[in-house]
Structure formats: structure tokens, C-alpha cells
């Protein structure tokens, strides 16, 4: 098997057994990137010389002493709002083309200490808020299942690169679903940890109280291995990963996709099949009710608008022309938002969290939709605008609770379908256990895009 086809866990095991060299793994990934980058535009900057030096150093150290961690010698991509020392953090924008990071982001420093290798910076929506745009310094990333479709955002390059087997893992950020969205549309695993479990220092902010940093990987085990290094607290998230689903109480939030924002027939059928499979594996699946998606979305939208306007105030006043049109359109309303609206949203947020926690008193986990339909065509702007808000990821940015998306099937067009599981705050171990149980019972982890 070519090294680029290995999962992170598989590659780590071979490296530890001295059956695979970090140099060999990196070079094979770089060859894969060279072959697919012209079609997918997942990367906006390569850091090849630095990555090759790091891989050689990892190989020498592992030969002498063994690996520091399962990430030692593993190539990891970085969404280009995350600082990598000595390289630009452009945020995919004209506003930041000349910005040079003078230190690693805190999460990058943790990955570097664990031995990870960084071969490049990945495409994003401008400042993690725009959308697929063609009036920016770099082209938008494309979906490896069909390049005519978008890969989800805003961690678009991260999703495309991992799904296309360019890299075993990548970092993204998630303010309204932006790790889980590309995971959903690219058929991989996207984990949004509990708010502030992973440090955000050195990550360009979008909305301070909603931003999260999370991994995108091909398997749940890989996500757990990444979280072991990224998270505060020193917990081993692989412990208990294979304990299965028996006895877990899972609340199925049907109204999100049946009433609040009706999903496509294929997505709805895939969710029902996932619920059936979870029950067949021993979970106790029951319908539960949460506040409507419209309420969560309104709170998220108001808080995001207010907090992002603080970040972008100066540029919106002095250089509005240097944003993409879609980014400018999404940022400007925050400049006119009354403070009272922000305070009402903050108060309602507290009430929404209390209601979700009340439901978590009855169940261990929640099963919901992620996206309500498959990815739209990337150049169909009206359809992209229509489908982007049709999702159930935003509630868990509002509550700050962990959530994970996984592939749940393929549509008749050959594009990934998805599901989402969510857990109470700091219950990542339970969340990953359940996700792994589903992944093991379902066939989708072995599916790959045809690129």
C-alpha cells in the first residue's frame, strides 16, 4: 500500500515498528499533493524544504530513541488562519498577504513538540467567514469527490486535502461548523472539541466566544490521537475507544432535519439508517426535542456579527475593497448591530445551553443531521448561499459542547452524506467511543473519492 493511503494510526504503527520512514511517508504525500493540487487547490503555500528537514530529523530520532508520540513524523496540514512560525498567515485575504508569523500557534507548538511535520498551509474561506470566492489572491479549494462541487467551509482546504489522501490529518477551525462542514461534504471525520479545550492563541479570531480549533482526519481513532496532543489536560482519548455502543442512550433530534430545516430525502434516509445501526449495535435510541434550529442560528449569527466586527473594524473602515464581495457582505452588518441585540443573544444563549443540558440529563449523546443536503456546485453562487445555512452544526458552537461529524453514505450523485453526534462538555472520550462504534459497524470509512 502506498504510504499516502495509510491512516494516521496505521502510519504511526509502521513508523514505530521501523517499517516506514517519516521521509518516505512525507515524500509520498508530497507526490500525491503535486498530482492533485492543480485540480483541487487545497494548498495555498507549500513548506517543503522545512518539512523535509523535519522528516529527516524525525527519522534519525526515531531510529535512536523511538517515537515521541504517534504523531512523530506524521504530516499535518494547517488551515491558513493558524500561525506557523516563519511563514505568512494570510487568512486567504489581500488584507494579510504580508503578515509573517513570528511564533507557532499554541496548538502548532504542541503538535511540533509531538514530532508532527508541516508540509504546507491550506485554503480557507477568507477570514473563515466568506464562502467559495473567485475574487481573492488564491483560488477556492474543490471537493475531491467531484471538483465541480465545493468541499464545505471554512476549513475547505483541510477537508479536501485529508479526503484526497494528500495528508493523514489537518487542523481546521469551527465557529459555526467550519471543521464539521468540510468533513461532512468530503466524507471524513471532523471533531469540534469543547470550547477552550484546545488553545486558540496564534489562531486568527472570527468570533471570540464561538471559535474552536479541531482536527480533520480519515478515522475516529486518528481524531483521538490528534486530540491527545492538541487538548489541555493530558487525557488519553483512545482509552475506551473500542468499548462499543451497548447501553449508551442516544437522543435522536429528528425535528432538526424533519421540521426545522427539512433535509433532502437521501440525507434523511441516511440518518434514519444510522439510528437503526446504532440501535443494532446496542445503543438505546430515543427521540428528543431541543429548541429550534432557527433559535440557535439567530443567536450564533448575532454573536458572530458583533464579535467579528471588533476584529475587522479598522479594515472595514479603511480597506473594504480588499475583501471578497461575499466576505464584505457577511462582515458589514456587524458594524451596525445594536449592543442590546448582542446582549439579548448572550442571554438567550445561556437559556439554550440550559435546555440542551436538561436533555443531556436524559441521554448520553445526541444524534443529529450535520448538513441537510450534499455539496452544491462551487460556481452556483445562489445555490451555495441557499445551502450553507441549512445545517445543524451551529447549536454546538452556541453551547460550546463537543460534536463530531462522520460519513453516513453516498448520494445518488456520488457525494458524501453525513451525520453528527454531540456530547456534554468535556465528554470527548464518550463521543469518540460512540463515533468509533458507528464507524466500525458502517462501511463508509473505507470509501474514498475517485480522484
Description:
With 451 residues, the protein is an alpha/beta fold. Helix content is 41%, strand content 12%. Strands 1-3-2-4-6-5-10-11-9-7-8 form an eleven-stranded mixed beta sheet, sandwiched between helices. Helix 2 packs antiparallel against helix 3 and helix 10 packs antiparallel against helix 12. The two termini are 17 Å apart.
Summarize this structure as a short list of keywords or feature phrases.
451 residues, alpha/beta, 11-stranded mixed β-sheet, 15 helices, 12% strand
Strand content bin: 5-15%
Secondary-structure element pattern, one letter each = HHEHEHEHEHEEHEHHEHHHEHHEEH
Largest sheet: 11 strands, mixed
C-alpha termini separation: 17 Å
Please list the strands of the largest sheet in the order they lie side by side.
Answer: 1-3-2-4-6-5-10-11-9-7-8
Q: What is the approximate shape?
A: globular
Portion of residues in helices?
40-55%
SS-derived structural category: alpha/beta
Mean pLDDT reading? 98
Low-confidence stretches: none
Overall strand count? 11
Give the number of helices. Answer: 15
Q: Taking Cα atoms only, what radius of gyration do you get, to the nearest Å?
A: 20 Å
Amino acid at each position: 500500500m502506498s504510504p499516502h493511503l495509510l491512516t494516521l494510526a496505521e502510519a504511526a504503527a509502521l513508523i514505530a515498528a521501523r517499517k516506514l520512514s517519516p521521509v518516505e511517508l512525507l515524500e509520498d504525500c508530497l507526490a500525491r499533493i503535486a498530482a492533485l493540487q492543480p485540480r483541487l487547490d487545497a494548498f495555498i503555500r507549500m513548506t517543503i524544504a522545512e518539512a523535509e528537514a523535519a522528516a529527516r530529523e524525525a527519522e534519525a530520532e526515531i531510529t535512536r530513541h523511538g517515537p515521541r508520540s504517534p504523531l512523530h513524523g506524521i504530516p499535518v496540514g494547517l488551515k491558513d488562519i493558524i500561525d506557523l512560525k516563519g511563514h505568512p498567515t494570510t487568512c486567504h485575504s489581500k488584507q494579510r498577504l504580508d503578515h509573517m508569523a513570528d511564533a507557532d500557534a499554541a496548538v502548532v507548538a504542541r503538535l511540533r513538540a509531538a514530532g508532527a511535520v508541516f508540509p504546507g498551509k491550506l485554503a480557507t474561506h477568507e477570514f473563515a467567514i466568506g464562502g467559495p470566492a473567485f475574487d481573492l489572491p488564491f483560488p477556492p479549494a474543490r471537493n475531491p469527490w467531484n471538483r465541480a462541487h465545493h468541499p464545505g467551509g471554512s476549513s475547505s482546504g483541510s477537508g479536501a486535502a485529508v479526503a484526497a489522501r494528500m495528508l493523514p490529518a489537518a487542523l481546521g477551525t469551527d465557529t459555526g461548523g467550519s471543521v464539521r462542514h468540510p468533513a461532512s461534504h468530503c466524507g471524513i471525520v471532523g471533531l469540534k472539541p469543547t470550547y477552550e479545550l484546545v488553545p486558540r492563541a496564534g489562531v486568527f479570531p472570527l468570533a471570540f466566544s464561538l471559535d474552536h480549533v479541531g482536527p480533520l482526519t480519515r478515522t475516529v481513532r486518528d481524531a483521538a490521537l490528534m486530540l491527545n496532543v492538541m487538548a489541555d489536560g493530558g487525557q488519553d482519548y483512545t482509552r475506551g475507544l473500542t468499548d462499543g455502543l451497548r447501553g449508551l442512550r442516544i437522543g435522536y433530534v429528528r425535528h432538526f432535519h424533519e421540521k426545522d430545516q427539512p433535509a433532502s430525502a437521501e440525507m434523511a434516509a441516511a440518518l434514519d439508517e444510522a439510528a437503526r445501526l446504532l440501535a443494532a449495535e446496542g445503543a438505546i435510541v430515543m427521540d428528543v426535542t431541543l429548541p429550534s434550529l432557527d433559535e440557535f442560528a439567530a443567536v450564533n449569527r448575532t454573536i458572530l456579527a458583533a464579535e467579528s466586527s471588533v476584529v475587522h473594524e479598522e479594515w472595514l473602515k479603511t480597506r473594504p475593497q480588499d475583501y471578497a464581495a461575499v466576505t464584505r457582505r457577511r462582515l458589514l452588518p456587524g458594524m451596525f448591530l445594536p449592543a442590546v441585540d448582542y446582549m439579548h443573544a448572550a442571554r438567550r444563549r445561556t437559556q439554550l445551553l440550559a435546555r440542551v443540558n436538561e436533555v443531556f440529563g436524559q441521554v448520553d449523546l445526541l444524534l443529529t443531521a450535520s448538513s441537510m443536503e450534499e455539496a452544491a456546485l462551487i460556481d452556483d453562487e445562489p445555490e451555495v448561499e441557499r445551502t450553507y445555512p441549512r445545517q445543524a452544526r451551529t447549536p454546538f458552537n452556541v453551547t460550546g459542547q463537543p460534536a463530531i461529524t462522520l460519513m453516513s453514505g453516498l448520494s445518488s450523485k456520488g457525494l458524501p452524506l453525513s451525520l453528527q453526534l454531540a456530547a456534554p462538555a468535556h465528554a470527548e472520550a464518550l463521543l469518540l467511543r460512540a463515533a468509533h462504534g458507528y464507524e466500525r459497524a458502517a462501511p463508509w470509512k473505507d470509501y474514498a473519492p475517485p480522484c
